[in-house]
Amino acid sequence: MSATRPGSAGRAPGGTSFKGLLLFWIALGCASLVLTVAAQGSGKTLQVTGRPASAEHLSQVAGVQVSQGLEPGERLRCQGRTIQNLDLPQIPARILAFSDHPERVRGRGLLFQAGLLRFAPVRFQYYHEGGRADGPLFLSVRLRNRGSAPARVHLIQGAAGPDPDYFAAGHHNNQVFLRRLVAFEGRVEVLAPGDSLQVALHRLPYEQVVSGTLQMTLLEGRDLEYALFAMHDPAEPVGFDLLSNPQDVHARGVYPAADQELERAWELGPTPGLLAFGAVRQPNILAGPELKGDYGVVVRAELWLMNPSDHAQKVEVCFNPRGGPATGTFLARVGEGELLDWSVPRPVPAFVELPLAVLEVPARGQTLLTLWTIPEGASNYPVRVLWRLQPARTDLQEECRRGAGSCSINHAPG
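Above: the chain sequence. Below: its structure as tokens.
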């Protein structure tokens, strides 16, 4: 079945000229300042992105408390720091890089290394367990400019751990990263020729897990590399011996599909609708194992729920693991409403149909549900999202508590 879609409302806007960014703004709790071109060239301007960039995000990047957000194109000066929200184009990731081999890291060395091409975003996800019993390891994610000109790179980042709960590490990383990706909350770093920059450092104790995701877009320059190192001490020189384990079947490589865009239209009736994801096997562009489970792949789905009847009807949306116990990170938007969190933080057994939310579709009308998700480290994929007419029962909230421990069936207006 097909449905006529409205225009592209809600999608990321395209590129915008940087010339329109020279504005002055009076920030709540911060001193006002008329900004000039010299301010950006002084090296004191922190460049961020976000639609909008939240106060929390600005505070994290600036290292000072910021009490308000910034729309694209705006600037403010707060506690001696100038912050500028660049109106950059939001380009889909072209390539997925994935590091889960060896999953258990026992010593120092190189876990992953690759390069960036200009305006070809790469999403890099890593998931590793500490395997050194006589002390913690450290994971360091670094950029290096091997070119002869400055390199300018946009970063969107999430991470979690160390955590002895393998499910929790993968889930919390996805929660942080996916929310930042949907809001386009990132920062811009500039590396001079020959410079290196550490963008993440994680302590990795024995039998604990670290999970992280970094999306990188090279804006200017060339020959910018990114690498993941395991170290005994964060202050020691990095080792370039590639770590490997022939007995470890987990994936390490570069894969061609970082994003999936899905559309479905469903006329309310007795037959449920469903989306399945996490079942695709991606070939490795480099020599190495294929990627099973779509880990690191961001799925964006538009679901049109159409009600042909003369009365409003309620639709139940459920999480349905198929490959084994699984957690889930879901962000949802009903129509043009606010962004909703439908996450499932505790593992749900295979074949359980866990209610996430109930939506009301108006009589002779339709409702657009937009979902974003990303498969979770340690979870068993594939999984399904299914939707159906709400069953005639009143114990859905109790089912939520039994299945996930934290969910609500009234995320969207009724």
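The chain has four helices and 27 strands.
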